[in-house]
Amino acid sequence: MSDDPYLTVEVGDDHVAIVELCRPPNNFFSLGLIGGIADALEQLDADPNARAAVLCAQGKHFCAGADFSGEGRSFTTEELYAAAVRIFRTETPVVAAVQGAAIGGGLGLALSADFRVAAPEARMSANFARLGFHQGFGLSVTLPRLVGQQAAAELLYTGRRVKGAEAVKLGLADRLSPLEGLRDAAHDLAREIATSAPLAVQSIRRTLRGDLADRVEAAIVHEAAEQARLQATDDFAEGTRAMAERRAPNFRGE
């Protein structure tokens, strides 16, 4: 269905589409990747054979977020987040299969889905403060929506990593599956959704999500502005250096 080099899309006879990220091992952000996901989901919305989708990824990690080494970083935050808003505005229910890292914006991508099936080895982290800047990809809305305001604040302030079992306990993930059966487990959940009446599922989903896409779009404007401001600080430079050097950062509040 897709000739995009960043992902593949295939709709099965069971009305479940498989949308697979193809930038292994880390599946770092690119405008092509996020825009391609938005394109794919918009196409699935128009396909009567597609009633649910599995969002999965090749390689070791689901999505490790942005590549701060600068390699291939040829897009602006505004362009990337415009594509992200398009993902939130699509109508096909999505189940994300999360293995390895879902870090930073990669966590934001995972939380754009309706459900998440995580492997025990999964590592979810909103690590923005550990890099010296502000969260993005609508996490200001989606994270507290799932785990509550206090848990979201703790995860954002500390940037700590949450593995699969704790993610289910917190509400970041909905089901836990062994890594070797992760995609099958996500597919099973998507198939359960696809066997329900599609018009009813669409109606229920619109009711439950309400103005989520509008709230994400408004939050993203603020997030992008704060990211731009903080990326000019010495702390952000130190945070990205420390990450590249695999050491603890030494922030000075400058």
Secondary structure layout plus pairing:
Blueprint: E1 7-11, E2 16-21, H1 31-45, E3 52-57, H2 77-88, E4 94-98, E5 101-103, H3 105-112, E6 115-118, E7 123-125, H4 128-131, H5 139-147, H6 149-158, E8 162-163, H7 164-170, E9 175-176, H8 182-194, H9 198-209, H10 212-230, H11 234-245
Parallel strand pairs: 2-3, 3-4, 4-6, 5-7, 6-9
Antiparallel strand pairs: 1-2, 7-8
Helix pairs in contact: 1-2, 2-10, 5-6, 5-10
Rg is: 17 Å
General form? globular
Give me the CATH architecture, please.
Alpha-Beta Complex
Structural class: alpha/beta
Distance between the termini: 49 Å
> Any idea how many domains?
1
User: Helix-strand pattern, N to C?
Assistant: EEHEHEEHEEHHHEHEHHHH
- pLDDT average, as an integer? 94
Q: Percent of residues in helical segments?
A: 40-55%
Stated plainly, the CATH topology is called: 2-enoyl-CoA Hydratase, Chain A, domain 1
Broad CATH class = Alpha Beta
Major β-sheet profile: 6 strands, mixed
Query: Approximately what portion of the residues adopt beta-strand conformation?
Result: 5-15%
Kindly state the number of beta strands: 9
What's the name of the CATH homologous superfamily?
2-enoyl-CoA Hydratase, Chain A, domain 1
SS element count, helices: 11
Low-confidence stretches: none
Strand order of the largest sheet: 1-2-3-4-6-9
